[in-house]
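[job 0417] fold request received: GntR family transcriptional regulator
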Amino acid sequence: MSSLPQMEGEPGQAGLVVRTLAERVFEIMRERIVTGRIPTSAPIRQDVLATELGISKIPLREALARLEQEGLIVSMPNRGYFVRAMSADEADEIFALRLVIEPAAAAAGCLAATEQHQAAARAAFEALDRAAADNLGEVAARNRAFHTSLVRPAGRMLTTNLVERLEILSERYVIAHLQPAGREDRAHLEHQALLDAWLARDGAQTEKLLKAHIEGTLMDLRQQFAAG
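[job 0417] inference complete; emitting structure tokens
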């Protein structure tokens, strides 16, 4: 990948420039981790990354610290940063929590949604569809945006934050789940039916469909892990 464009700032704006670069590095690294381009067995070489991206180590360290907070990487004493390995146990825990919180939250969201909220949910669905067709690296983020858009209208900030956090932790598993042939088509149909129920303000159907969607993904992941 070519280096990031260097950003110039006025005196006193150095902190803003570093934070902006750190945000861009975070997005690059997150996509590489989610799509499996960075192996779990090798340490993340900060010097190599800084040279590749054409940046200093300051924004890189900020990005790595954020990735660790998001649960995507771990820091090992005297060994550096490593990508956290996925596991069946973690998938079970993440998706079990989603099942407890997300279906009911989306049902509440559909009842409280304004026309603006409905337009945002449609746009999020369309963006997810485009990503599925063109860029697998964007699918996880667009999937998160779609699912969160169903919850946000209820105005429950803590619930929305919990759902978004669980969606972030789900992202690598979502990508792994979609890899077998035919999974993207099934996901599209499930999302379309879910959106239709949500737009119709059918809370019971929204909750039922979202629960089935999450349970189906988890069952597929369990089979994938069992198959090795």
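[job 0417] notes: The two ends are 32 Å apart (CA to CA). DSSP finds nine helices and two strands in the chain.
[job 0417] exit 0
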